[in-house]
Amino acid sequence: MSAPLLSVSGLTKHFPLKGGLFGRSTGTVRAVDGITFDVAEGETLGIVGESGCGKSTTARLLVDLITPDSGSIRLGGKEIGPDLSVRDLRRQVQMVFQDSYASLNPRLTMEDAISFGPMVGGMVGHKAVALARDLLARVGLDPARFAGRYPHELSGGQRQRVNIARALAFSPKIVVLDEAVSALDKSVEAQVLNLLADLKAELGLTYIFISHDLNVVRYMSDRVMVMYLGQVAEIGPVEALYSAPAHPYSRALLAAMPSMDPDRRTMEAPLAGDPPNPINPPPGCRFHTRCRLADTVCSGTDPGLYVMPEAGHLAACHIHIPGSGHRDAKSRAGVTA
Amino acid sequence: MSVPLVELDNLTVRFHGERTVHAVNGVSFTLKAGETLGILGESGSGKSVTLKTLLRLLPENRTEIGGGVRVDGADILKLEGRALADHRGGTASMIFQDPMLALDPVYTIGEQIAEAVIRHEGVSSAEGMARALDMLTRVRIPSPERRLKAYPHEMSGGMRQRAMIALALACRPKLLLADEPTTALDATVQIQILLLLRDLQREFGMGMIFVTHDIGVAVEVSDRVAVMYAGEIVETGSVRDLIRDPRHPYTKGLLAANLHGAVKGARLHAIPGAPPALAEAPKACSFAPRCPVKVSGCDINRPPSVALGEARQVRCVLAAPAPGA
Question: Domain for residue B13, yes or no?
């Protein structure tokens, strides 16, 4: 396999909590805590997890909207910082956010909003405008009708198309979609997903697709990464992960999807309680406080990502690690290996 | 058959302001005691407005409500003063999407529940608190004695949602109105709340109207489902019939857009366009401009509501049995 387009290693971001006496630090939110993953050129990596698991922080770290505390990001073999400037990174990695309205300057027309970036980057005015009109047409908005409009004159679906067009203005290699379709109504969401699929095929894009909607992630992604409290719980090919999730948390997350069959409704909630707070994550495996299969080893030792038999499938669970000390470790590993 | 718990007869709601919005355009349905009706629709379809009419929560001075609304035998549109206050929280109660806005931040959970019980049932404050404790236990909040003295901001999202359900059910309403109560929650918490509502509804024998935009959620809680589009019910039927055999083109599109079992790489059958702005009352089929199977009459006349068997109605000309068949 060729070198990955994007390679993330040991990425960490902790936010200090202020609010004690005289603004002293009262704790740390361990939003992203040492995550490692690769993204190959042309693939779509889905990222799923509950609120507070660090999916959005990861997205922001990838385009350097926040600076990581430690760890490295390599794009096309070059490390951000030493080898590649943030400016160059952002030309190649663009982002689309959930809130289509907050993402657009209310005082700029759609044409201006899209041409603004390229012009700042040195493109001549009339060329940037021509590019903007071309991109509007490409995302399915007739430039003659939409180029002069302001954000409040567009529907949510149309605004999100403009945000996608703007992200494409630099001809990026990677587009990070952070809940980009979550705020749209279902019928409009399907239109935007079709558009994203078309653009990917035409332009050879690579997507990082963050969503809480597991159906959408399954449809869009080649591989999926499940995050829990700032760490990777499991990462693998989408069908392998959905049909046979290795991590108990992935299994619970999938089981929590509402049933679509009235005769087979969900009878028991797969997990009790709310996701714990990333401020003081539990020691050992972070999921052990909610896990039905937890053993003594789970509260003491962080399992780390373990390579599953199937290619490219990794899971952070003691059950799959032979000799980990978990009561089910050997038998289960023996079955799968 | 006895009188239904809820009877909506050709309900229309118009909002007057800078511009007029025809939010609800002739909605009729009935709900039996102990039954759950899911109302499924996208934003602006009129589902929440329909629900709020049942508690008369819409701003009086710029809302024009037409048609008939009866809950438990009472004409809701005629209620005034004390009778209206008795209805709200007594006969019918509502839970919302955001419990932080529905709960009062300066009173403890226990005080808020006790206040409702004291107001509606005239009991002492000690009895009110006892009921509050009982309710927190029923919604399965861990260590309820401690939570009784907690303020809303001290609880997590799922816990606040449970507290709001406890408050809504404290006076044993006959009807629970749920306005997207799980939309803001994580999937693992959402399913807990849905199962809780299902259990409590059975335990208390309440009727429930559950508004949602998520088909999966509607399937988990509903006996019957009504699909709304542009202020009208376009299709209604048992949840089983509706999921297995949708008849209205909009329902079909909505089910396809849910992506459940969608084939990877295949194009989604997206409904083109967007819902209408509802600046005027519909004269033709509201869905016609987006409909893939539109026929010539669809832009001219309002389609009839075609009854297909018991409790199954579809507002589409194509649903009518072929003449002479």
Answer: yes
**Which DSSP symbol is given to B91?**
I
Alpha-carbon distance A277 to B106, whole Å? 24
Q: Give the residue on A whose Cα is nearest the Cα of B140.
A: A273
What domain count does chain B have? 1
Q: What is the DSSP string of B105-138?
A: TTS-HHHHHHHHHHHHH---HHHHHHHHHHHHHH
Residues of chain B in contact with residue A187, where contact means CB-CB under 8 angstroms, are 42, 253-254, 257, 270-271
Q: Residue B58: CB partners within 8 Å, gap ≥ 6?
A: B13, B15, B49, B52, B65
Kindly provide the b/e burial profile for residues B254-270, where b requires at least 16 CB atoms within 10 angstroms of the residue's own CB: bbbbbbbebeeeeebeb
- The answer to which of A156-160, A227-231, B22-26, B276-280 has the lowest mean pLDDT is B276-280
ipTM over 0.90: no
For residue A198, give the chain B residue with the closest CA.
B267
Residue of A185, A189, A229 to mutate, testing the B interface (most B Cβ within 10 Å of its Cβ): A185
**8 Å CB contact between A335 and A325:** no
Model confidence pLDDT, tens digit, residues A123-166: 999 999 999 999 999 999 999 999 999 999 998 899 999 999 99
HSE-CB of B73 using CA atoms within 13 angstroms:
3
Distance, CA of B24 to CA of A332 (rounded, Å): 57
Quote the crossing angle between the two packed helices A156-168 and A110-120, to the nearest 10°.
20
Polymer length of chain B: 325
Q: To the nearest whole angstrom, how far is the Cα of B221 from the nearest Cα of chain A? A: 9
With beta carbons under 8 A apart, name residues in chain B contacting A262: 219, 239-240, 243
- For chain A, the maximum distance between any two Cα atoms, rounded to a whole number of angstroms, is 68
Q: Give, for B208, the enclosing helix (H) or strand (E).
A: strand B207-212
Chain A nearest-CA distance from B173, in A, is: 25
Kindly state whether residue B122 falls inside one of the protein's structural domains.
no
A270 interfacial to chain B (CB closer than 8 Å): yes
Cβ distance A196 to A220 under 8 Å? yes
Q: Where are the domains of chain A?
A: 6-107+150-336
Helices A125-138 and A156-168 cross at an angle (nearest 10°) of: 130
Is there a domain that residue B144 lies in? Answer: no
Distance CA B296, CA B294 (A): 7
Q: Which CATH class is domain A6-107+150-336?
A: alpha beta
Domain CATH number, residue B171: 3.40.50.300
At position A108, the amino acid (one-letter code) is L
Range of the domain at B50: 6-106+151-319
